[in-house]
Amino acid sequence: MTGSDRLTRSFARPVLFIPFALLLAFGVVWLYWYPLQVVQAITGFNWAEGAFVGSSGQSQIFSFSIAGGALSLLLMTYWIYRQEGSRRASIPVALAVGYICTIAVTMWYEQVYANLWDLANGTAYWFNFYANPPKLLTVVVDMGLLFVAYPWMRRANLKLVTIFTLLTLAFFGLWYVTGYGFPTSSASAYLFNGGSRIFSGLAIATSVIPAGGLRKR
Known about the structure:
The protein is mostly helical.
C-alpha cells in the first residue's frame, strides 16, 4: 500500500484525519519563527555578502537558505499533490506538510552546524544555546515535525534521499576541512554552506516523489 493509499483511506475516516489536521495546524503555528525571521530580514539584503540581515541587526539569513527552502517547499507541495491524484482539495494539506518539513529540516541542519562549529572553534555554542530544557524541548518538537510527511514517504525514494543526505554531509565535511569559516569569510565557505543547506532540503523533498518518479502523469 502506498503512502497516498494510506492517506486517502484516512481522509474517509474523520476519527483519523481530524487529529492529523490538528497536528498540521499546530505545526504551521509552532514554526512561525522562520517566516518571521525572513520577513524581518528582507529589508537588509546585502549584495556583497549574499545575505539578508534582520532589521534588528541580529538575524542574518543567507540567500541560499531562502532559495533552498523555497525549492524544498515547492517540490514537496507539488509531489504530495501528485500523490493525491492532483486533486485541488489536497493542496492545503500538501502546502502545510511542505511548509512544516522545510522548516523542520533546518533544525536538523542546525544541530550538525552548531556541533561542528564548536568542534572547529573550541566554543560551547550548542550547549549555551540549546542545552536548557525549554529550548531543548523546542528543538525535539521541531525535529519531530519532520515526520508529518510520513504518509507520503516512499521506500522507492530511499536511494535519492540517501544521495542528498550524503551530499549534505560531504559539503559539511569539505567546509570543516577548509576551516569552517563563516560564509562571508571566503567563497569556499559560502559554497559549502550553501550546498549543504540546499542538499538537506532536497533530501526531505525527494522522500515524497510519487510513483512513476519525476515523469508527469
